[in-house]
Amino acid sequence: MAPRRARAVDAGVDLRDHLIGAAARLIARRGAAGLTVREIAREAEVATGVLYNHFADKEELLALGLHGHVRAAERDLPPLPADGEEVGRALLAYTKRALDLHLVIVPAFANLAPEVLERFTALGNPAAGGQGLRDQLAAYLRRRRDAGDIAPGAPVDAAATMIIGACHEVTLRVPAAVPEGFAEDLVTIVLDGIRVR
């Protein structure tokens, strides 16, 4: 038994989870493209063959590692405001959080093999507890609309798509940099369209 495997099992850590965690750490540092099984095994401190006892292939491990990377990056972000927060401030917090998350995770997807992306997508959205950022934001906006804080007919799904889409667009640029005041401007534009008049 490899030394790291013994420590992982003795500590009550599932070896499969340990291997996914090792892949997620490497992906966070250098992205998923070109990552080898040997590098993941080295990070996990196990023999390379151990990985094939727990995963069908490298693509499965990389997809799971990407999922782990997204969840870990999200855990490091500040919490979202409560529904009672003023809508403009809350919407700004949601937008800044989405931008911060995108800045951390988008580089991991650069030059990703289509097979890995397909496997990643099949696992479901890892962000917002599986809900996904767009749906999480749309649900928040629906709750605020139901409370009367947003215009009754406001197209909240479109507003959520616009915000998260803008986060994608600005963080996909090379180099990824969010222009000063971008989040504030985006929130102002959205609120002008959905605020109670």
TrEMBL record:
This is TetR/AcrR family transcriptional regulator. Keywords: DNA-binding, Transcription, Transcription regulation. The keyword Transcription applies. Transmembrane segments: none annotated. PANTHER family: HTH-TYPE TRANSCRIPTIONAL REGULATOR RUTR, MYCOFACTOCIN BIOSYNTHESIS TRANSCRIPTIONAL REGULATOR MFTR-RELATED. The keyword Transcription regulation applies. GO terms for molecular function: DNA-binding transcription factor activity; transcription cis-regulatory region binding. Residues 36-55 bind DNA. Residues 13-73 form the HTH tetR-type domain. InterPro entries: Homeodomain-like_sf, HTH-type_TetR-like_transc_reg, HTH_TetR, Tet_transcr_reg_TetR-rel_C_sf. It comes from Herbidospora galbida. It comes from the Bacteria.
